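Hello K.,

You asked for the raw outputs rather than the summary table, so here they are, unedited. I folded two proteins back to back in the same session to keep the settings identical. This is the first:
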Amino acid sequence: MKTNYIFGLWIAAICCVLNLLALTSCGGSDEADITKPTIDLVAPCDGDSLLIGGENGVHFEMNVADDIALASYKIDIHNNFDGHGHNTLAAADATVPFTFSRVYSDIAGKRNATIHHHDIKIPSNSTPGKYHLMVYLVDQAGNESYAVREVVLSTTATEHQDKE
């Protein structure tokens, strides 16, 4: 009787090990995507002056890529007046710090894309000064890369004209 009991325990243990091996070996060829997407931010360049109140909008251009599939990108512009804090302006000041934040998903599922648009419009009442322009790029696995440009908003900057 004791021999049958020990034999039954051995059989149960072997079945458990075989089940575990079968469960862990399924999908062994699936590797997690841990590679971050890449950004080549062409324009604006670091230190560029962007025109306040321009009619054409900011010239934005970049090349993006991923080894599997892209998901989206976000453009964020915020002031850098105090070395990266956020000050408040006096009530008498007629200008307001410019902010821009928009997520684009038109690249979803692509491995690479060239993006060129003029979606960023800087209102004429925007405060001149130093700003950060940041681009965040996310692939479908959730890996993220970012690029940063320091730009200056100015009323005397030259407006970009695309060559058609």
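The second followed immediately with the same parameters:
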Amino acid sequence: MVMDVWRPRVFRPRSLSREIDEMERLLEQRSSGWPLRIMWRRIPTGEMAWAPSIEMYEREDGFILRAELPGVSSQDIDISMVGDALTINGERKPPEEVKEEEYQCSEMCYGSFSRSITMPTSVDASKVEATYQNGVLELRLPKAEQAKPSKIEIKTE
């Protein structure tokens, strides 16, 4: 097994995300693929950023993508597709009935999020279906006709 050594670079605010991604990659690599992703990060401005967890798998006719979005209203989710890039934007709003000074502890993240995924093959954007149930967004992304495998029959004489 080849060992990668992580060497921190000079800190620059715009490279912080890249450094964290590199540390996560090395941790995952060392832990036999057990996911150690950080789903929210404290960024230099002091704000909290978060991103929903996703999973995507391929079927013969397309892809299924699921995103965990508990506490997010379907009206606060925007899905768009440009070329082979799928983007999910949205916002989880904090409860209005709780005042900031009343909190004793809060580990939940609120605010805007954005996730972009580059699809491995072309998708027919006009036939994408989205459903949202129990805090899980599910997208059915059918492959474009040119991306679907075609069976070639062998003629025998």
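Confidence is low (pLDDT under 50) at residues 34-47.

Happy to rerun anything if the numbers look odd on your end.

Regards,
P.
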